[in-house]
Amino acid sequence: QVQLVESGGGLAQPGGSLRLSCTASGTSILIYDMTWYRQAPGKQRELVAAAISGRDPNYADSVKGRFTVSRDNAKNTITLQMNNLKPEDTAVYYCNAHRSTYWGPHDYWGQGTQVTVSS
């Protein structure tokens, strides 16, 4: 059973920082594309940052230069360092593990962690 557990969310002031972590169990993240998504109230879930093995990280335009995604395959963990936070970054952040197989895609999601940016 693959499980993803996010941590590190909370309340931050505009201009502040938070660091999110996502730790996987039941599998190795080596074989997965690991991605952070977020969903704000009343909005669709959107990609924030992707950490795909062998490729440069990919970021949403809205977070480029402020967020940094990294993966530690040995610790089975990915992190999202969020700097210079803005109120529009307020959302529930989800970790996703994805891989494509001959039999179809495999997707796993964490439970989400709330990030609130407010003064």
Short account of what is shown:
With 119 residues, the protein is an all-beta fold. 0% of the residues lie in helices and 55% in strands.
List the helices and strands and how they pair.
Elements: E1 3-7, E2 10-12, E3 18-25, E4 33-39, E5 46-51, E6 58-59, E7 67-72, E8 77-82, E9 91-101, E10 104-109, E11 113-117
Parallel strand pairs: 2-11
Antiparallel strand pairs: 1-3, 3-8, 4-5, 4-9, 5-6, 7-8, 9-10, 9-11
Core attributes:
single chain, 119 residues, mainly beta, seven-stranded mixed beta sheet, four-stranded antiparallel beta sheet, globular
Tell me what the structure shows:
- The relative contact order is 0.31.
- 0% of the residues lie in helices and 55% in strands.
- The model has no long low-confidence stretch (mean pLDDT 95).
- It has 119 residues and is mainly beta.
- β5 (46-51) and β6 form a beta hairpin.
- Strands 2, 4, 5, 6, 9, 10 and 11 form a seven-stranded mixed sheet that branches. Strands 1-3-8-7 form a four-stranded antiparallel sheet, with no helix packed on it.
- It contains no helices and eleven strands.
